[in-house]
Amino acid sequence: MLLSFRVENHKSVRHEQQLLLTPTYEDAHPENADWEATTVAGIFGANASGKSNLLDALVYMRDTVRWSMSTGEPGGGIARSSFALDLDAEGEPSTFVVDLMLSGVRHTYGFAVDDERVVEEWLYTYPKRRKRVLFERDGAEFSFGEGVPAKLRQVRDITGPNVLFLTVAARASNADVEPIYRWFSEALLFAEERGTAAPSWLRGRRATEEQMTRLGELLSSAGTGVRSVELSEGAVPASVASRQDLIKKVLAKELESIGGEERAERRSRFLERFSVSAPAGEGRTEAAGSIAERLYGGHHGLFPTGWSFGDALFGSPELLFHHGEGDRSRPLVWREESKGTRTLTALGYEAQRALETGGVLIVDEIDASLHPYLSARVISLFRSETHNPHGAQLVFTSHDAALLGRIRGEEVLKRDHIWFVDKDGEGRSTLYPLSDFKPRGDDNRARRYLTGRYGAVPDVDDELFQRALVRRVAEGDDGVEGVTE
How high is the pLDDT of residue 473? Predict the structure, then answer.
């Protein structure tokens, strides 16, 4: 579980901000579950207040952990987005820290980077609630705690100045760091933009028939008119001229740092599984969908944007939405469906994954194209001890004040679930919890929020706002002011 996340000097976040998920009030503690932290955190605030930037900081941390070996070319520096409205911030590091509970053991991992190198990096665990240092990094200097195996210590010799030690150690199969790396690579899930393009989980062939059945039930229960959904086969993109050449390129990358007998064995296993002549079922695996991403990162240029290795070899499936009965109606494909149905489909699949695995689902603007009642129902699943046996967590942003109150008589969020983001006159975002206001359990939080009691609402100059929208210079009127039609 995610216990806390801290970030400093990233986009609109100038000074350190912390999302702390440890509950303050007793009503946020489950009766029977052993959750260490709250399973829901809703972040509210005005447009451009920095809500999305806080979530983007988690995206940046995850991607840096996963891909720093791929993107950290020698002498290439580190890409980051420091606070832009203060010239001093450019010369200061950006810092990212998570506190996690993994298999009953607390872990703290963090790093600080500037434009050139990793300034600091550290990983601590707390077995039996006592601090154990796995490693600490200060620029080019590394130190290790007692009992750390030699295999982990040796990783420092092959870690570049702009590459995370954690990434290199995990790729070298060091068991001490694998739990934290797997949390970033497998348990930290981000809901995608719900646009006209099919989501990556569909293109990456990770969806199962059981999940499709449950998605169909979800859409049907929500009154979308969809009776069921189905995965169909898709065509190989025409822009991939030669699948055999693609296999050779990816295989060469896979083998470039491997020698001896292991090289021959890895080559044989790769071709057996991923060659074009291999059985279709063998190729249509998640491994085929992610291998090029793992080797090349997100900018491989081997095939069209949004396509995975598996898509390029075997085609990308389509999701069909069945509305009518019998043969008199054809199913709709993704781009033909309503935005609301696409939103609920994407969010429903991602929520399924998190609830099944106990992961953390991050959703920016959960209310986008979704009725408040449906948003509330998704939130309720993560609050439920029955439907959330693994302690999955949902962290979301929203503008919808209805989620702060009751919907159909049910309280959507507890006091410990609510956070706000405000931005000051110098463009700096501040994150703070509702608990700072010492709220009572029966407060009308939606009304108090809309009347500005908690801050984090737009500061609108009504007169200027109206004038900006209605005063126009009509074209062809020789500059005479008027109101356009």
Answer: 47
